[in-house]
Amino acid sequence: MTGRDIVRVAPLASGTVQTLKVSEENAHGFTLTNGKQDVLLPFPEALGQPLKRGASVEAYLYHDSEDRMTATLREPLARFGKVARLKIADMNPRLGWFLDIGLSRHMLLPLKELPSEKSVWPLVGDEVYVRVDRDKEGRLLARSVKEADLAPYAFKAPDAWRNRWMDAWVYRSLTAGSLVVVEGGVLGFGAIGFIPSHDRPRPLRIGEKVNARVTFVREDGHVNLSMRKQKEVGRGEDADKLLAELRRRPDGAMPYSDESPADAISKRFGISKSAFKRAIGKLYKDGYIEQKGSWTHLTEKGKALASSGDEAEG
């Protein structure tokens, strides 16, 4: 046999779709072969197809619950080396998160792949972006994604997205803000976005679905987003929040003012200092508050408003 007569056969590997031939039928299903290796296609995974010896099939390979290489004719939600958004089916506090890949066995996203801060851990039902990899035994394993993993799939957001409310999924949560993939719809996979910390109500979970407004479309096609309404609407809502804090206090005063540091305002009210100042300005202009040093007090008009149970006028 000459070198040109040698036929290279792809080894059976999990997470791949391969063209295999039916070599026989047995009590458990069909034996498929690539000419060098065999793998079982269980009857349930054959989807009722009447396969005959010698027939060729396109089969997806994975490890079953007993870690045996297995074939299926089902269309998987994830393939090796690809990026996918997968729903969390279960969580084991010692191992990690189990992801639904459309098969009888879930794929593990190990604990070490996510931050140690539990407040940003995903919950069952959340959908996480992952890169499909394999462990040392060749079994499918999920890895957390980075921007470099998403870049080949993402597209540049169009300018028409500005001020549009969009659905997005968090893929990384930082102190400075949350990195997301914005739903692409008919345009495709999605666009990469960033929600600054002052434009989110709290640190967001990885895998959490959010609805946010595109505030800026960058030259590279990435977008900045905010989960807050535009200033005129948000100012009234923030003013109501501050009034609620003041009316909650017996003396109608709180130790926050224009002089308060931004981090203290964000921690207490979940808004940026600029939003706080806009709300304070509205309440002051309407005559509901006055400021004395580093404290803000309800005026008599503000106390009357609080007693009536009404909110600040929009």
What Rg, in angstroms, do the CA atoms define? 28 Å
Main sheet overview: 5 strands, antiparallel
CATH topology of the largest domain: Arc Repressor Mutant, subunit A
The helix-strand sequence is EEEEEEEEEEHEEEEEHEHHEEH
Unreliable runs = 1-7, 309-314
Helix content: 10-25%
Domain Conserved virulence factor B first S1: 15-73
Domain Conserved virulence factor B second S1: 87-142
Family: Belongs to the CvfB family.
Domain Conserved virulence factor B third S1: 156-228
Description:
The protein is α+β, with helices and mostly antiparallel strands. The chain has 4 domains: 11-72, Beta Barrel (OB fold (Dihydrolipoamide Acetyltransferase, E2P)); 83-148, Beta Barrel (OB fold (Dihydrolipoamide Acetyltransferase, E2P)), CATH 2.40.50; 154-226, OB fold (Dihydrolipoamide Acetyltransferase, E2P) (Beta Barrel), CATH 2.40.50; 231-308, Arc Repressor Mutant, subunit A. It is 17% helix and 34% strand. The chain has 5 helices and 18 strands. Helix 2 (231-248) crosses helix 4 (273-285). 30% of the residues are buried.
